[in-house]
Amino acid sequence: MAQTAAIGTGVGRRTSPRRLTAAHRDWIAGYAMTAPVVLGAIVFVVLPLGAVFWYSLHDWNVLANSFVLAGLDNYERMVADPGLRSSLLASLWFSVGLVVLNISLALALAVLLNQKLPGTTAFRTIFFSPVVVSLVAWTIVWGFLLQDDGGINGFLRLLGIDGPNWLRTGPTAMLAVIVVQVFKNVGLNMILFLAALQGVPEDLYEAARLDGAGAWRRFRSITVPLISPTLLLVSILTIVGSLEVFAQIAVLTGGGPGSSTTVLVYYLFQQAFRFNDFGYASAIAVLLFGIVLALTLLQWQTRKRWVFHEN
Amino acid sequence: MRTELLDRTADVDATLAVPAAPDTPSPERRRRRRGRALIIAVLAVLSVPFVFPTWWMATSSLKPMSEILSSVPTLWPQSPTFGAYVDVFRLQPFAQQYWNSLYIAVLVTVGTILFSSIAGYAFARIRFPGVNLLFLLVLTGLLVPSEVTIVPLFRAVSALGLIDTHWPLIIVPIFGAPSVLATFIMRQFFLALPVELEEAGRIDGLGRWGIFWRIAFPLARPAVAAVAIFTFLKSWNLYLEPIVYLSSKNMFTLPQALTQYVDAYGGPMWNVQLAATTLTVVPVLVVFLLAQRHFVEGLAHTGLKG
Fold it and tell me: B240 at the A interface (CB within 8 A)?
């Protein structure tokens, strides 16, 4: 610092205007290069987010073309709305089920595939392959498998079991949606875990083995702490992703039976584009944003407690 | 893929050969071998729900409706027919819809790579007033799921007269919330790139753009690959936005088109739907199997750097 100041004074004035223009040119490049993304964020994220808040304070029916300031009416309606309550509950079940099943299966697969075994590359490819298949295509195939006279019940019948009508029965419908989603995307989390596992030094396991630690103990005391940053990343991505589930619901169950699989986003979609109630839909969108924000902040807050830092 | 598998097997044999004593078949080794066989068996069982749906889809698409509905499932079509594949193109402009999905995904991918890498570079490497503030502003996009802003965006799109066009499916993903993760990943990559690599360019008199295009961008291939893969898949999977913005069959994208093969009563025409689904899944799977190494490693990269 002192040295550069000395050089600056030593060289004298002649170079300073030149240095200034170089810095300015850098500034201009910086603004120009970030402008598309920054303007995009303003136009497509910040402004619409502000608009959602504004809309949510209005009674707005698209068909009737009415747009009336209504204060907190939409929020009061939300508090009293059993449909919203059940959609929150459905979202909660979906998220909990998905996160638990997805992360535990992804971690189990990653640990199994991290062994030096013949064929692990082939298995890795197999478990990852549904990730690249279009979501709706995958869901349609599973809908075909899970229908009353579909493949799964057909094979169960061969075993003498009478399968339920998976997608038309309350408790199994939600389970079906979760399972379909788990198989679709678990490969992605598995790859992230595998990458993290490969960074765990082998000698730690050796040392633990010499100390007589069993496989479960080694997993709990070495693997989990050392891959905890990835665990955090994966759980944030999975939880936030689980709140956005829409296509699977629309294709598999249409929110039914009853409203048992009508999750928050599906409910928002119905209010906006089925019932044309944009004001109420906006209030639901604000709620969704609040939940995502709260969950993300919560995870960052707790991260110090359970994320192990190597450095 | 196959050669890689062989390599891997050879590796394992080599490492095993070292600790094993030549003439004593140790119980340790036998136990180990049994453990490995068990793991492979578990993996094989677990892979069924990942592989079987695709198999069931492709074979069922060749079955006549009567066989699809028969109560005894058949793993292979008894009398294969391509009738459903003909119907796929007869009932809807399927080729057009295929093209729609493809060109939209390619445009979105190229556009996202372009703008996110330029911005990611600037955010990582150029010190200009407000750089951190602007970056934070962009990052808010990570907190806003696209479902939250669908109502105002729909209103804007309809006010601009762009309903039933592909513009909102191209412009919003390139510049809006979906591209924020891409910018973040590119920035992380450029932060880790050694500064010395740029020095030579600067000495040769290159400006910021020159350094970006000639030096930084070509070095960013792993990050670009990761961004390309997940951007393409995201666009390819888009479902809510198309059903909100598009109304005529000629404009539909694939995910939307797949759900349109229904009979007069609204029930799905399974064989046609499965044939169409096969046509959308199989090419993607083939490309994936050919390039799976790059795919998987590219995505693992996002996790490491993110």
Answer: yes
Contacts with B11 from chain A: Cβ below 8 Å: 116
Q: Do the chains contact at A44 and B177, CB–CB below 8 Å? A: yes
Q: How confident is the model at residue A26, as a pLDDT?
A: 86
Tell me whether residues A129 and B71 touch, CB distance under 8 A: no
Mean pLDDT of B87-111: 95
Q: What is the pLDDT of residues A173-229, one digit of tens each?
A: 999 999 999 999 999 899 889 888 988 888 888 888 888 888 888 888 888 888 888
- ipTM here: 0.84
What is the sign of the dihedral through the CA atoms of A249, A251, A253 and A254?
A: positive
Percent of residues, chain A, with pLDDT higher than 90: 48
Q: What are the backbone angles phi and psi of residue A68, rounded to the nearest 5°? A: -120, 135
Spatial neighbors of B148 by CB under 8 A, at least 6 apart, are A49, A52, A285, A286, A288, A289, A292
pLDDT at position A6 is 41
CB contact under 8 A, A132 and B304: no
CB contact under 8 A, A37 and B138: yes
Q: Do residue B11 and residue A116 have CB atoms under 8 angstroms apart?
A: yes
Task: Indicate the pTM of the whole model.
Answer: 0.85
Helix B167-175 with A16-41: angle, nearest 10 deg: 140
For chain A, state the CA radius of gyration.
27
The confidence score (pLDDT) of residue A230 equals: 84
Decide if pLDDT at B304 tops 80. Answer: no
Interface of A with B in 108-147 (CB under 8 A): 109, 112-113, 115-138, 140-145
Rounded CA-CA distance A173/A186 in Å is: 20
Q: What would the pLDDT profile of B256-282 be if each residue is shown by its tens digit?
A: 999 999 887 878 888 899 999 999 998
- Is the minimum CB–CB distance between B23 and chain A shorter than 8 Å? no
Q: Which of A136, A227, A263 to mutate to test the interface with B (most CBs of B within 10 A)?
A: A136
Under the banding of pLDDT at 50, 70 and 90, the label for residue B302 is low
Q: Give the pairing type, strands A66-69 and A58-61.
A: antiparallel
Centre a 10 Å sphere on the Cβ of residue A253 and count the other Cβ atoms it contains: 22
- The pLDDT of residue B298 is 65
Q: For residue B282, how many other CB atoms are within 10 A of its CB?
A: 15
Are B237 and A134 within 8 A, CB to CB?
Answer: yes
Is the confidence at residue B13, as pLDDT, over 60? no
Which amino acid does the sequence have at A184?
Answer: K
- Which of B8, B116, B177 comes nearest A121 by C-beta? B8
Among the partner-chain residues B47, B128, B268, the one whose CB lies closest to the CB of A30 is B128
3-state secondary structure of B76: coil
**Residue of B98, B149, B153, B294 for testing the chain A interface, max A β-carbons within 10 Å:** B149
